[in-house]
Task: structure prediction
Amino acid sequence: MKNIHVSTTVNGDEVEFVCPPNETLLDALRDRVGLKGAKEGCGTGDCGACTVEMNGEIVCSCLILGAEAQDAEIKTVEGMSTGDALHALQQSFIDNAALQCGICTPGILVAAKTLLERNPDPSETEIRYWLAGNLCRCTGYDKIIKAVQVAAADMRGA
Amino acid sequence: MNFPAKTKTDFKVVGTRVARPDGVDKVTGRALYGADFSVPGMLTGRVLRSPHAHARIKAIDISAAEALAGVKAVITSDDFDVPEDDFLRDVQDNCIARGKALYHGHAVAAVAAKDAETARAALKLIKVDYEVLPHVTDVDAAMAADAPVVQEGRADESVPEGCGPNVTNFHEFGHGDLEAGFTKADLILERSFKTEATHQGYIEPHACLATMADGRGDLWCCTQGQFFVRELCAGIMGMEASQLRVTASEIGGGFGGKTTVFIEPLALALSRKSNRPVKIVMTRDEVFRATGPTVSSSTDVKIGMTKDGRITAGDAQLRYQGGAFPCQTVSFGAQAAFAAYDLEAVRTQGWNALANRPKEAAYRAPGAPVAIYAVESVVDELCQELGLDPMEVRLKNAARDGTKASYGPTFDQIGLVATLEAAQAHPHYTAPLGENQGRGISCGFWFNFGGNTCVSLNLNNDGTVGITEGNPDIGGSRASISMMAAEELGIPYDKVRTVITDTNSLGHNDVTDGSRVTFAVGLATIEAARAAIQVMCRRVAKIWGIDEEAVYWEDGYAKPSGPNAGNFDPMSIAEIAAIASETGGPIAGHHEVNAEGAGVSFGVHLADVEVDPETGATKVVRYTVFQDAGKAVHPDYVEGQMQGGSVQGIGWALNEEYIYGEDGKLQNDGFLDYRVPVASDLPMIDTVILEIPNPGHPYGVRGVGETSIVPPLAALSNAVSRAAGIRLHELPMSPPKILKAMMSKG
Result:
């Protein structure tokens, strides 16, 4: 199997890597690009721990091939903060204790960010359904939902 | 251990909601979990697993796999010596089958190759000659006299005559005259229950990276206890513990399931054989098939009650299957079953049995949820039959300070009555319910644990403090430990940094389990801080030229104790640290303890559900948890434990289960078919923390992590019985089962 050369943009940086045609975007990001923030929890798109943004949509990077990243715009949790300034969601997750073990946190943050970009004032139900693809086994989701609500209010300047 | 002084109740740092020290790493993706670490020259390890539930391994041919280009090592059980110790041998045999594959997914061989693709290809080249044997997966079938024998000769001396061949141990607890107790009852109910196994469902699959050469090893892994991993792996590898260093990564959830080893000895053996570092990461289906879910159970409960709600006698028989190796889990269930009640006559009997299923591992209060589900369901049904208020009945019978517990000891200071009263007074208990809705309550109990703990506290030259502890932080414990050190020393929380160290840097620490860390590591931290304070006071006494006893510590300063001691300006911890080298050298405090006095924990849950009469689906519409934390060191993380455990219990009650086919194969080994609760399934989980101090801890702390998974099973069952007018006696209460029961009721 011949490897494939991929040129893409990750968190605003132009990136090139070479990967086998059957390698997932998740593995390419982790093992070729060196960004370990996205995690593999299931490998079947059921847990959301590997969530990244690709061309403005959230995807399970375990279900996308690395080769599909050609000319794409990828955003991961590593791209959320600017310098030492955390994104409002990241800060809110810390302030509201919205993580325990933290393994699901990168995927949830990426998913929540895309929600707030589309809808700056989501209802609790909207947040719950938007995040229904991201499993968290520690928190019972309560504090996660609250953290998203608080971040949304912050971002609206409320 | 009882401290002479009354437990502390006035706090400056403890009880506040400070930011956790690992927060930034975890929200930026920088934190390193099990699968995130790599080293130069690393190989990929993968495991071949049994496609059969029960099969004799007649031969394994690994020659073709070994010959494949890029394959650096292939191992089978032949690459391990057989440990003399029964327990170690079981752990090893669970990691890689010897002679027989005992369950679907049991490892039979492993390979290390240059990459995952080569490793996968190599697995296909391994030829295993199996003789398929009859299997058993159901708990009652496994206990039958004519059941297929999972392992020969594993019954211990506790097993009574006449038990089936798979029963491995028997336990009995209780006191009083059962017969006399039942005679006093106005109503006696006898009910049987079944529960299916559930998995801890941590989002991070097991992962490890091993290097082994010249008899020395280094192991990086996601675990709840690096010291226990070292003990198990060193034993299995036949090496001195000192020659194996184990470092715990950040851990992506465990809930008890990461308290033992599955792939770690395989990675070490592959590394030994290939002379290269080897990393193994489990896939999700491997996690389901070959790590430890909880037990499945079958229970009979008989309870007698007077018409005014007094329980006169309680009797329970519990049968647990915990997979293909002996376990003791039913002992915890049998002890916990009636722990919430003050009973004159009580008996519990428990049998553990083998089955062709993965060996159970601890899961949050192991054994207790299913036992208490059965008891709390019968108590509730008695209340319904007798027309009694279920909260009043629980209050009337509740265990309290001085109660002789159903499992033997006498309770010290416990918070059950206060917890029940808080639930009764809460607006949730009297809130109106809608159509097809019902409210259920249940008590929960867990023992909690202390155990071996070792903490080192070092004063830095600038007056800040470094703490070294040995327990992986699974839910925010680093924050709690830093808080207790700051509290005791009288310095700000952000002047303390707590790190979790490898096995070479501290004495043995027990596993992060039993809700022990905030209690035991906290206790050792407070004592280590007190030891450092003593050193600091001694140094200051020397500087001031006065007696050591004439110096006392307050709010981060050494002060002269009254006018007789002399007139000296207080010295801050930073000032003391700055001149430490002139007063005798570095300043540290240590504490080593096998902590006792963990203090039991009680919780009460209120659940409102709505059952859809068309589909049988149950929706949780309101949920409130009341739990005694002793002292909530970091209330956010106490609430988090209460909420997280509740939701796991809700999943167990409504949907989660291991499903086996007739062929003995697990049919739902992924998150699509083993569906844990998602955000849209749930309401907010309200929490009420009670603080009845535990006299066994200087700050009154008791464990909080496990109790919260105990009540939801019965709370939901009791709520469903009121919402739908039917009571199921098995879990999970999935929509088809509820619908069937509703339809047969008409």
User: Anything to note?
Assistant: Chain B is about 30% helix and 25% strand.
